[in-house]
Amino acid sequence: MKNVLKKGKAKVWATTQLITGAALLAATNVHAALPDTADPSNAAADGDYIGLMKGYAYDILIVVGLVLGCLAFTAVARNCLAVYSEISTGKKTWSDMGMHGMMGVLLLVFVIYLLTEAAGIIF
Length: 123
Hints:
Elements: H1 2-28, H2 49-89, H3 94-122
C-alpha cells in the first residue's frame, strides 16, 4: 500500500513539475503593453504636473460627488419603501407616503444643487 502511495505521489509531483514548466515557458513569450493613462477632463499643458494633479483631483472629486448623489437617492428610495411597507400594516397612511416622497424629491434637488455648486468651486 505504501509503494502505491509513493508511486502516486511521484506521478503527481512529476505532472505538477511538467505543468509548472510549461506555464513558465508559455509566460516568457507574452509581451503585453499596458494602456496609457487617460488625461483628466481639465488637461493641463505638457510639463505642468501640478495642473495635471489638479485635473485628476477634480475628476476624483466629481466621482465622489456622484457617489454621494447615488447614496442620497438610495436613502430616499429606502425611506419611501419603508413607509410603503408600513402602509400595509396600518401604521402609516398614503398621505405619509406622499409627504415622504415630496420631501425626498426636495432633498435630492438640494443635494444635486450643492454638488453642482461644489463642482464649480473646486476648479
